[in-house]
Structures
1.
Amino acid sequence: MIIELKSNVSEKRAQEIAAEVKAFCIHYDGGYVLITSSSTKSLDTKFESETERVTVLNDDMQLSSRAWKKETRTIDINGVKIGGTTMNTALIAGPCSVESEEQIEQSAQLLKELGISIMRAGAFKPRTSPYTFQGMGVEGLKLLAKMREKYGLQIITEVRDATNVEDIIEYADIIQIGAKAMYDHGILKRCGKTQKPVLLKRGFGTTLQEFLQCAEFILAGGNPNVILCERGIRTFETKTRFTLDLCGAAWMKEYSNLPVILDPSHAIGYAYGVPDLARACTAMGVDGLLIEVHPNPKVAKSDASQQLDHDQFRALTGSLNAVANSIGRKII
Ligand code: PEP
Ligand code: MN
């Protein structure tokens, strides 16, 4: 149940009511909002004079639900806006990992050339093997910060675990929580304590309900700026790396108020299919795409098989604009 308190209710009073009804208390849209478990179905009438609106929900997908908030949230990334009524489809691109200054600078130059404003690259990589490249760490974050300054880009980079969450919050413009870290409650709760936008990726073995409930940990912590990212789930299929759940994306667009981004690169795992998938994703009218592109994919230190080279990426962006325009959207 979500209880919106009247705007004249003080923080102290909001906290008192929250303690009494066992609720989270957040400040949202100029007032205090309390969130109880969805199993609580009614509020004592003694609070009537202090409440603006009470929304009873069927499950614990609460703050993220359209049942509570009809409009898609607008996420403002230092002036770059997605969601809401913007009709923007944000192209978020860059290599899987930061590997060197030369490599990340070539990536930044490509984005600048194409008018793309959000660059992705991991500095702390959650690899499936301990014997492979694990990322440049804080050195990589510093290179990303340098590119932000030099090329005026917004930076999205992923938090791997509790040991780097503070560094990521400090350096990133959008904090990425990867598929493997989606269930890390320490990370989720910490990200609820900042106001920086968070891109939460769906774990490859999680249901939509489980995914949305992870988003709730961030929202209920007080951070309203969450973006959902579908990046492929594990099915019986082995020819592709994962299976991009476009039905799930349609479901999230219908039932969630959070912007939805699709990641065709990690889903298929092979560069040959990324352009077709990216066009299909754009045609769905989602709020953004996450695409891996590398100056020389053959020598990439992670996810080499799925990264587009610069020419392939240039060709793709032309066709994405056409698809986006055909449904009244704009690639930014
Ligand atoms: C990535 O974006 O490079 C990444 C590791 O993605 P995921 O968490 O979806 O595997
Ligand atoms: Mn990757």
Note: Residues 96, 122, 126, 178-180, 201, 231, 266 surround phosphoenolpyruvate (ligand 1) (CB under 6 Å).
2.
Amino acid sequence: MALREIREKDDEILYKKCKVVKKFDNKLGILLDDMYETMKSRDGVGLAAPQVGILKRVVVIDVGDGPIELVNPEIIETSGSQTGSEGCLSVPGVYGEVERPNHVKLKAQDRNGEWFETEGEELLARAMCHECDHLEGELFLDKVIEFLE
Ligand code: CO
């Protein structure tokens, strides 16, 4: 495993839409492993592939309950709402209040290409939405209601 460079706010790659993953090969596994290690090294709870310069629909999340790997994730159901502080490893030092659904259900593929469904609430739901936004080239900054000191 290796740490990858995290792209920051002014990097245009963060504003591009990511491509669907079609090859479930060893390279994808290495990307997922590297992304997880990179996220952990920076105390993050989520990381999307464009943040390490790869325009593919790949996400890792760990809100404290172990790693979640999402390839080609699609949110299929949301409910409720929550407003809370959000940050991003690509925008260091900036935090803001963002409204998100409180409950999210999504489907995704694992590193072998198997489809599965999973759901999350509160922080996990927030991370799922934030990381799926990255795959569309969207940063949380556009959704901030109020920036925090
Ligand atoms: Co982010």
Note: The mean pLDDT is 97.
